[in-house]
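Structure first, sequence second, as always.
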């Protein structure tokens, strides 16, 4: 689908696709099997500018608008969602939170590394007992003189084993969302522990870890935003993160479509290409419509962000639709590939495994529906 892109946007899209087709696509199956990307790809992604999109040049980024950002995430999603997640979390969830809520000192300390891929961030919100309900998280940050002492556990943390800084959310006062604060914790601080989770169904090339905080002491200057603002910061970051996940899912749908068209034209059964069968075209048509619809929803949310307008509900709609569309498309693509779709010589089974988590993280599909339902009815079903 052709969007009315500027020359700069088209140039970045072309650069991104060429780079990823050469540097990521040929290796993705091996990284998937090895349960780790070759981490040498991370600074290379930084050189192309993936980590610096929408981060101002004065902080080491390449600037650019939100549509360019989404084009970059789409290309990453088409190439390898494990790689997309590394970028989205470090730059999107952590870097942009620092940009929006950080002091000048915090921006100067962390952004130049994050915006160039020389350092990585992780986003520590989910806990073993609190996933969809982070307002009741249990990790604590207790005042001790001018410092805070953090205790608790986090789980499923993308980049957790590789990150240089962890944006962690912990309770500084009473129960509920208003007692949560955010902290930037260097991962070499004594008491910070990490343990990689193995055996994931998808996104196997990225490190997903459990984190432990055992009397981790940080100065007051490590707090991001005011005391009690942590939940708001997390929700603001996740609203933007959902646009990024949505864009990555558009890439999955697009990748499934391209692979299915190519394969169905090449593969013959009954002396005819698969593409000539109406039932195969039915599957391809659904993917094509889903790719366009998901991309338009993502672009609408990105455009609202760019214009400084409220975008939360539109981000939920984009993430919900695009993630469910990615699962549908990957499932259809496997059907078109037949038995070959089930082995990892072809990309579609990886798209399926990677797509599945998109309906779970950064707010499950159920949570997105509750947010959309609340916006439509004015009644919160969370209480
Ligand atoms: P639960 O909250 O226990 O939900 C279980 C089910 O109940 C879901 O179907 C859910 O939709 C449903 N449910 C819950 N509440 C309601 C309700 N009110 N109404 C209807 N249905 C409901 N977290 C981070 O903080 N940082 C990361 O970097 C990160 N990366 C991740 C990477 C991976 C690969 C994975 C798998 C997870 C990651 N997560 C991360 C965690 C992720 O965000 C959570 O798994 C997600 O929010 C869901 O929480 P949960 O797993 O505890 O499920």
């Amino acid at each position: 689908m052709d969007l009315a892109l500027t020359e700069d946007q088209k140039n970045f899209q072309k650069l991104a696709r060429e780079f990823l087709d050469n540097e990521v696509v040929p290796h993705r199956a091996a990284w998937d099997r090895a349960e780790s990307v070759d981490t040498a790809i991370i600074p290379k992604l930084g050189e192309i500018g993936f980590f610096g999109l929408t981060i101002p040049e004065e902080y080491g980024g390449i600037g650019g608008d939100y549509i360019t950002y989404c084009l970059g995430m789409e290309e990453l999603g088409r190439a390898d969602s494990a790689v997309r997640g590394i970028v989205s979390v470090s730059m999107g969830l952590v870097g942009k939170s620092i940009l929006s809520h950080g002091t000048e000192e915090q921006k100067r300390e962390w952004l130049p590394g994050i915006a160039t891929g020389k350092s990585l961030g992780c986003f520590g919100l989910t806990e073993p007992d609190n996933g969809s309900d982070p307002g009741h998280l249990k990790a604590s940050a207790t005042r001790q003189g001018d410092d805070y002492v953090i205790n608790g556990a986090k789980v499923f943390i993308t980049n957790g084993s590789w990150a240089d800084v962890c944006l962690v959310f912990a309770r500084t006062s009473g129960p509920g969302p208003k007692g949560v604060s955010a902290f930037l914790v260097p991962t070499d601080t004594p008491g910070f522990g990490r343990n990689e989770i193995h055996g994931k169904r998808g996104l196997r090339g990225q490190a997903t870890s459990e984190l432990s905080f055992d009397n981790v002491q940080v100065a007051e200057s490590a707090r991001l935003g005011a005391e009690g603002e942590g939940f708001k910061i997390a929700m603001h970051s996740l609203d933007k993160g959902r646009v990024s996940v949505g864009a990555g899912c558009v890439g999955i749908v697009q990748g499934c479509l391209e692979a299915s068209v190519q394969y169905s034209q090449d593969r013959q059964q009954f002396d005819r290409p698969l593409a000539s069968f109406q039932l195969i075209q039915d599957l391809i048509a659904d993917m094509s419509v889903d790719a366009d619809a998901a991309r338009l929803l993502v672009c609408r949310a990105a455009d609202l962000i760019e214009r400084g307008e409220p975008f939360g509900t539109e981000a939920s709609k984009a993430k919900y639709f695009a993630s469910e569309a990615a699962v549908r498309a990957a499932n259809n693509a496997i059907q078109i590939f037949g038995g070959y779709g089930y082995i990892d010589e072809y990309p579609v089974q990886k798209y399926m495994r990677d797509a599945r988590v998109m309906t779970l993280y950064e707010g499950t599909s159920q949570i997105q529906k509750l947010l959309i339902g609340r916006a439509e009815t004015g009644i919160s079903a969370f209480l």
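Margin note: The pocket of flavin-adenine dinucleotide is lined by residues 89, 123-126, 131-132, 156-158, 200, 203, 208, 357, 360-362, 364, 366-367, 370, 382 (CB under 6 Å).
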